[in-house]
Amino acid sequence: MPCPPDQATLRQRLATAGLRATTQRILILESLLQLPGHPTAEQVHRQVVLTEPTVSLGTVYKTLDSFVAVGLTKRVASTEGACRRYDSDCQAHHHLYCTNTKEIIDYSNPELDALIRDFFATHGLDNFQPHSFSLHIAGSRIS
């Protein structure tokens, strides 16, 4: 597990996003940043209750949704259907989904991004101007 970010950094991130730095928000943000991959709200909750057992799963969901609303995190579709996963990396990138392991792998490639931008510049959609994009590619890891 990565080193936890310091409290001042967490407080600053929340303040910059326009959120009050409550104890629960700090714990939830810290857990989201520490957990590997793209955790579910349930995984974040399991981490948070180790420190603060009174935090409910509903509070974790509401807090993560508020983080999404202010751009602190992104919601990521998953191969499990209704399961919501969260990505603390808000930089533009794509996701590869391993259908065997259910793993979500971050993928960045400027050449691919340029191809997509060029495609829409020449083959645009009627009455639609894309501002951002993220590919979700499903497949299997090859050993």
UniProtKB/TrEMBL annotation:
**Residues engaged in binding Zn(2+):** C98
Cofactor notes? Binds 1 zinc ion per subunit.
GO function term, MF aspect, one: zinc ion binding
Q: What's one Pfam family here?
A: FUR
List GO BP terms, alphabetically.
negative regulation of DNA-templated transcription; regulation of secondary metabolite biosynthetic process
| Highest taxon listed in the record's lineage | Bacteria
Q: Which key words are in the record?
A: DNA-binding, Metal-binding, Repressor, Transcription, Transcription regulation, Zinc
Cofactor(s) in the UniProt record: Zn(2+)
Annotated family? Belongs to the Fur family.
| Name of the protein in its database record | Transcriptional repressor
